[in-house]
Specification:
Length: 235
């Protein structure tokens, strides 16, 4: 009897390698970023079609603001235009779209799209698409700690109420832990991505850059996930 395929509940992807892919194909970094986003559109649809309930993507880190102004400005313009177009379609498919990260110093045009999309999809009860923009794992832990400390000072909770479960529920978004974390392009590090949420995730590091990480490549990731024996530390 064929063994049933295990489908991860929460998949996270570090969208790495856009610029390297562009260089290999004699394109500009801007073209690489654009190809990466168009790939994300079709890939996300495919991922949700496989029965995965939550997809988190590392779209832009806090450290990415250290790149050239020209590249950052282009990415902000791409987010504003592409988010509006693509997420408007996803909202009609009952996908709930949430965003993780700090608001400052994102430009108003990006914040307006984030607020609009979040509001329009907040009552959708289908898959969840968590887009991490201006996100850093350490920043999330610091911000969550500050939030809980303020609740203690305000008398909303007692210090003895603080637990892992309470902390998790106060992260940028209250989502289940990551089951499968994928970083494309062959780099083998987290780079400050979902540090709390990835505590017991299975890691997968394909060599292919993200613009070329297609449906077949994702299927390979699922095959590898099914080979893993998840023990969660105590088994």
């Amino acid at each position: 009897m064929k063994e049933e395929t295990k489908v991860p509940n929460h998949v996270a992807i570090i969208l790495d390698g856009n610029r390297r892919w562009a260089k290999k194909n004699n394109m500009t970094p801007k073209e690489g970023h654009y190809r990466g986003f168009t790939n994300l559109e079709s890939l996300a649809d495919y991922i949700f079609s496989k029965g995965i309930k939550i997809l988190s993507v590392y779209a832009f880190s806090t450290e990415n603001f250290n790149r050239s102004k020209e590249e950052v400005d282009y990415l902000m313009d791409l987010f504003a235009v592409a988010f509006k177009r693509y997420f408007s379609r996803l909202s009609k498919d009952n996908v709930k779209i949430v965003f993780s990260g700090r608001r400052e110093p994102l430009p108003k045009k990006v914040l307006d799209i984030i607020d609009d999309v979040s509001k329009k999809t907040m009552n959708n009860d289908g898959p969840i698409f968590n887009v991490c923009v201006n996100y850093g794992g350490r920043a999330e832990i610091v911000d969550t700690t500050k939030k809980i400390c303020q609740d203690i000072l305000d008398g909303k909770i007692a210090i003895d109420d603080v637990s892992e479960e309470l902390f998790e529920s106060n992260l940028y978004n209250d989502l289940p832990p990551v089951d499968l974390m994928i970083r494309t392009s062959g780099e083998q590090r987290l780079s400050n991505f979902l540090l709390w949420e990835n505590a017991y995730a299975e890691f997968y590091f394909p060599q292919v850059e993200f613009p070329a990480f297609d449906k077949n490549e994702f299927d390979k990731a699922l095959e590898e996930f099914n080979k893993r024996n998840r023990r969660f530390g105590g088994q």
